[in-house]
Amino acid sequence: AQSVTQLGSHVSVSEGALVLLRCNYSSSVPPYLFWYVQYPNQGLQLLLKYTSAATLVKGINGFEAEFKKSETSFHLTKPSAHMSDAAEYFCAVRDLDSSYKLIFGSGTRLLVRP
Amino acid sequence: DGGITQSPKYLFRKEGQNVTLSCEQNLNHDAMYWYRQDPGQGLRLIYYSQIVNDFQKGDIAEGYSVSREKKESFPLTVTSAQKNPTAFYLCASSPGTENTEAFFGQGTRLTVV
What we know:
The structure holds two protein chains of two kinds.
Chain A: E1 3-5, E2 10-14, E3 19-21, E4 24-26, E5 33-38, E6 44-50, E7 56-58, E8 64-68, E9 73-78, E10 87-95, E11 101-104, E12 108-113
Parallel strand pairs in A: 2-12
Antiparallel strand pairs in A: 1-4, 3-9, 5-6, 5-10, 7-8, 8-9, 10-11, 10-12
Chain B: E1 4-7, E2 10-13, E3 19-25, E4 31-37, E5 43-51, E6 54-57, E7 64-66, E8 76-78, E9 87-94, E10 103-104, E11 108-112
Parallel strand pairs in B: 2-11
Antiparallel strand pairs in B: 1-3, 3-8, 4-5, 4-9, 5-6, 7-8, 9-10, 9-11
């Protein structure tokens, strides 16, 4: 079965600094990968998704992620952090062995310092 | 507007009582899901349904039940058998194919006292 691991439960950056949130996947076949963002007491909103069309995926709010098969990674980046980016971020993979359900990582909380 | 509606947003119940969380979607999606969210544990799948009148257990189904009598509705009942029901519950739906994302409701925060 597929799985994802998010390294770092908390990441803190200064406003204007690079944001890097890490996600590694485990899959025996080409995966379908997703990044979601969650603001407090709200549902999840899709940031971007990888579906094998291109290895560099651009999403909303200036975020992008690069699929690296050799590293089994799908890290999320943003060149310059804004205060409004403070939230929790989840990486997810489709479980192709089991009815296409989404499997989520444990999440990374991003703190942006002024 | 198309979307997923969860109600209520906050719910308080006494220990030992069953409670039902509502989830409705008007996106015409085949698949629907219930996740539980606890701090530091990400989202864990409770139940999912790929089609009307059919559903499967997820990773933490014990103490929960669901029904899927209509395409647009997937209610979750938290029974008294659930040992630690206080959590944030999220409902989601998707077209059901491998390359599509899931769309989420705003969640229901259940507190059992």
